[in-house]
Write a structure and sequence with these properties.
Blueprint: H1 4-21, H2 25-39, H3 44-63, H4 68-89, H5 95-118, H6 122-135, H7 141-152, H8 156-168, E1 177-182, E2 188-191, H9 194-202, E3 206-212, H10 218-231, H11 235-248, H12 253-275, H13 281-299, H14 302-311, H15 316-328, H16 332-341
Antiparallel strand pairs: 1-2, 1-3
Keywords: TPR repeat
Organism: Flavobacterium sp. CFS9
Protein name: Tetratricopeptide repeat-containing protein
Length: 342
């Protein structure tokens, strides 16, 4: 026997579904929010009706690119509630449709992130990629895409968050990529697995299969972290990640150049301390000590610049920086030798 409360909820759900069918998503959401507090105590059938309708509304908003990343997350949560309650009740009314909707949304959001990136909407691209990653954390490429998009959009806080997460899960990006050429479009496309590609080839839709094993992304992640911290004037963390990058690749030119830059920035910290000192005997002694430290800090940049010139002998930034350091430290012999070799 159905209760009066459950009957009323069903009627309001029909109203929400009617609004959704007419494309009036905001009106549908208003009805759903009105009865939300009643749903936990509702019969399982009403719960699944409610969450399936909620998922559909948020999915439609996400598909129309209305706050896509956020609405994707809300739709995903609603569809997963459908699966949860139907698994508990063993009454599978919407399970297949909910699972299909989740896969469809993931595909559309990945496409949306790619399209946003192409037109320079980097934040929107990053948000979408990260939501896809949260939905399926085994698909770590989406986390890498979120980090890369944030870096491209100069959102260094988000870039650090995502690259740090990649580092913690030991992401390398390595793994076989499966390509084949679409016979109709003549364009090469990527497949999620070898079996998926073979199936398409057997159907006569694709040809010219090839495999590609991409290089590790670990160096790129560390360099990107170094750069992001550098842009935020966090020189200590920048130094740490550039040094880690050099451990992976001793010929990392970017690491060498930016480590030299970071070392010189440390000199400014010491100069600020020197400027704050007075003229007492103890302070003058401290001044001389800091002055010596300042020169040693600057000297510590020299090996990195020399290494940069081994990697790329004509690098203008390395030559200019090294000449500047030699001049500031009165290293006339070294200055003239470098100047003469140009």
């Amino acid at each position: 026997m159905i209760s009066i409360g459950a009957f009323a909820q069903k009627e309001e759900l029909k109203e929400a579904q009617s609004y959704y069918a007419k494309g009036k998503n905001q009106e549908a959401l208003a009805v759903l929010k009105k009865i939300e507090y009643q749903i936990l105590n509702a019969p399982d059938e009403v719960k699944t009706d409610y969450f399936f309708t909620k998922g559909n509304v948020y999915k439609d908003l996400a598909t129309k690119n209305v706050d896509a990343a956020s609405n994707f997350a809300l739709a995903s949560a609603a569809y997963q509630d459908v699966l949860l309650y139907e698994n508990e009740s063993r009454n599978y009314k919407y399970a297949f449709k909910a699972s299909s909707a989740l896969k469809e949304m993931k595909s559309k959001l990945v496409d949306g992130a790619y399209n946003d990136y192409k037109i320079g909407k980097f934040k929107e691209s990053a948000d979408k990629s990260y939501e896809v990653y949260l939905f399926d954390k085994k698909d770590t490429l989406n986390l890498f895409n979120a980090a890369s998009s944030s870096l491209a959009g100069k959102d260094y806080s988000a870039a650090i968050k995502y690259f740090e997460e990649l580092r913690k899960i030991n992401y390398s990006g390595k793994g076989m990529v499966f390509y084949a050429t679409n016979k109709k479009t003549k364009q090469e496309e990527v497949f999620i697995s070898m079996s998926a590609r073979e199936s398409s080839i057997n159907e006569g839709l694709y040809e010219k299969p090839r495999n590609f094993n991409p290089p590790s992304k670990k160096e790129e992640i560390l360099v990107s972290l170094g750069f992001s911290y550098l842009e935020r004037n966090d020189f200590r963390n920048a130094e740490k990640y550039y040094e880690d990058g050099l451990k992976i690749n001793q010929d990392c030119l970017t690491c060498c150049l930016n480590l030299a830059y970071v070392k010189v920035q440390f000199r400014k910290e010491i100069q600020d301390q020197m400027s704050s000192l007075g003229t007492t005997a103890s302070e003058m002694k401290q001044f001389d000590k800091l002055d010596a430290q300042k020169d040693e800090v600057v000297k510590s940049a020299i090996p990195y610049l020399k290494k940069a010139l081994v990697i790329e002998p004509k690098n203008e930034n390395a030559v200019k920086s090294l000449l500047g350091i030699y001049r500031s430290l009165n290293m006339t012999k070294e200055y003239n030798a470098l100047k003469g070799s140009m």
